Amino acid sequence: MSLVIKQEQILDAAIRRLSHFGVNKTSLTEIAEDVHMTKQALMYYYHDKQQLIASVTAKISGEYIETLSGLLDKALPVKEVFLSLIDMRRHFFSKYHLLFIQLSTTDLIGAAEIEQIRKETKDAEAGLLAKQIELFIGKGEIRPNNALDTVTLILDTITSLAIFLGKQCPPPSQAEIDNLIQKQKALVELLFKGLETDKIIYT
Amino acid sequence: MAQDQKQEQIIEAAIKRFAHFGVGKTTMNEIAGDLSISKALLYYYFPDKNSLYAAVLLHIFKITSEQTNQLLEKEQDPVKMMHIFLQRRTEYIIKYYNIVEFLKRFNQANLPKNLQELFSHLRQKELNRITAIIEKGRQQKVFQIKDVEKTAELYHDFLEGYRTSFFSQHPSIFPEKEQFLAILEKEKAFSEIFFKGLSS
User: Fold this and answer.
1) Residue B112 dihedral angles phi and psi, to the nearest 5°
2) pTM, two decimal places
């Protein structure tokens, strides 16, 4: 079997375990067993846990940015972009659960490589959204401001509401998630009330 | 706070953790953390993980059998009652799979004493339930049997044996829901033949 296929299999198994059990409660041995390998064989493909987690992080980050780009391609009104972003994050949360929480909120194991990917993803996300904001500033629908600062502020506030997800014993109940999404959306509505000019017309 | 109440809280927090992470991956520290109580207080209620585990199993068994009772009360036909019983049993195993799975690490030789006692208690309860259903069938003259208890035991032995052999043939880390449902189908099929044999 080709190297790439085997690597993909390992990544998928790792994502499955990490999503459910989180980084600290997943061992390489378990992942190896899932793909019917010895730990030693697995370590031929990934030399240690950090390297594997870095690959997992890269894969999910790539998917995240790709999904976000797809969302932006839809040319939604600017507020809708952020409301959809909240739904999109919810989707990633239910798909990757603990892994998504750990990738977005904790320091994981502090490996430089993982830290780098996380930072790049965060920057890419903010950059893409800032471009959108600028577009709407150009149209006069959003008050002139530093787009990147504004986006960072919005994202930080949305994320801060979700911090509790990492602190309690997972999984949160459906009601808790609904409640969180509602609050996040209300917050976006509120922020955009301050950001939008009178020029904006909702149809 | 009343002692019982605290104990119940601990059990519920433990169920939440066990159900998600499995028993092996859960630490007493984490459970104490979830409840914001000290580890010392937690150990006051449950001196070790096995005793907490036993309490959790008993707790789950109690809630589930109450719910099953309510369902069974509405049914008169003993064969259908047995199907309800089997169905519920499967549903609970699926729901609490990560908790039940912990048992795999024990065998007859290393099973802690408190779990041994719990199991013989639970086994007896389950056997009693099967006996009650078969007895009902006998009274209704649906089943022609002399020894209700022996028949119930035979039936119960099959259930245990069948499950054990199924899982040794189909090993997997996260048995899929379908696997349990497949077992349930077989159990129901067996049930049907078994009770047909008892009917006149």
Assistant:
1) -60, 155
2) 0.78
